[in-house]
Amino acid sequence: MLANLRRRSWCLILPALLLFPGMAAAAEFSAQMWIKEGDKTMPAKVFVQNGKIRQEFNDAGGRTVTIVRPDKKLFWVVMPQDKSFIEMPLKNKLPGQFIEMPPDAISKRQVGTETVNGYEADKYEVTVRGGPEGVTRQTVWVAKKLGAPIKMVCPSQNLSVEYKGIKEGGMSALLFEPPKGFTKTSSPIGFSSSMRQEIE
User: Fold this and answer.
1) Do residues 123 and 154 make contact, with C-beta atoms less than 8 angstroms apart?
2) Domains of the chain (ranges plus CATH)?
3) What's the first-to-final CA gap in the chain, in angstroms?
4) Residues 55-96: pLDDT tens digits?
5) Angle at the Cα of 30 (from 28 to 36), degrees rounded to 5?
6) Residues 161, 151: contact at Cβ < 8 Å?
7) Distance (Å, rounded) from C-alpha 63 to C-alpha 106?
8) What is the DSSP letter of 13?
9) 175 vs 172: CA distance, rounded Å
10) What is the pTM of this model?
């Protein structure tokens, strides 16, 4: 399922755009992340601190942690099962599920304000290039207090992403560093060539 979501990752363009460079500079929160595709649901975790982002997924290959550090212009993919990590430069394209708005984005407009998971959020309708029909429409709710998206719906792909159980503050800076004692490697166990291609 994770591979399918990554292949369709253009549908996550706007949330990543708002979260990545556009979030409030001092935003700090953690949340349960729920990705729904059709009748399947994949849970994950997300952590944000002053522009730094950490996401944790569990899939058939085990637990994978991605840490994005715009301040260092790099990101790490951590494989806890073999105590190793890969370090890669952060280029124009964000790695894996972190995807920025492309230059040919068609439109974005605010259509209202709603309360989502306890947060007052601006609701946006967005049209981006991509997908089977050439364009994709999605709706995104951006929490005013957090300066970050907390819900996204992409109807044409029956796909949604939502942050629940949001907790503000209280995170260690160590969450956004490779764990001590882990080995930096170019090819950790369990990290396939296809996984590398997805993040490069």
Assistant:
1) no
2) 2-179 (2.50.20.10)
3) 20
4) 998 877 678 899 989 899 999 999 888 899 999 888 765 555
5) 135
6) yes
7) 36
8) H
9) 6
10) 0.78
